[in-house]
Amino acid sequence: MFGLNITGITDMLKSLTLNKNAFGDGLGEGGRRMKSRAEGLCPVLTGYLKSTIYVKVSGHVMTFGATADYATYVEYGTIYMGAQPFLRPSIIENEDWMSECIMGKLLPEL
């Protein structure tokens, strides 16, 4: 399984008096766009790999990845096949969007 975890914001949020769902809402909004982009970049032969791409938000933690056993091989390649990245580019392309989504949810709470 290949994935990405975004953590470390819990301590900051504890020091602020915010709607506890605001950060998670921002993560969810940004994560949906990231997932959609990864699905668009994902190479499709049978469609299984694409169907296993997920984003999950639990509190202040977002997990994003693909659960297909061979997702890592497709993402990074092997000695027999070249890499066909679909997760990392979606993360990189949506970094600014993710920040905007989070800030868009947090700023009204300040």
Give a short summary of the structure:
With 110 residues, the chain is of the alpha+beta class.
Distance between the termini: 38 Å
Can you tell me the residue ranges where pLDDT is under 50 for at least 5 consecutive residues?
none
Total helices: the number is: 6
Please bin the fraction of helical residues. 40-55%
Q: What is the ordering of alpha helices and beta strands? A: EHHHEEHHH
Q: How many domains?
A: 1
Indicate the radius of gyration in whole angstroms.
16 Å
Global mean pLDDT: 84
Q: Based on helices, strands and strand pairing, what is the structural class? A: alpha+beta
Sketch the major β-sheet: 3 strands, antiparallel
Number of strands: 3
Describe the fold and architecture.
- With 110 residues, the chain is of the alpha+beta class.
- It has one domain.
- The chain contains six helices and three strands, in the order βαααββααα.
- The chain has helices spanning 10-15, 22-41, 48-51, 71-76, 88-93, 95-106; strands at residues 2-6, 53-58, 61-66.
- The protein has a three-stranded antiparallel sheet.
- The protein is elongated, with a radius of gyration of 16 Å.
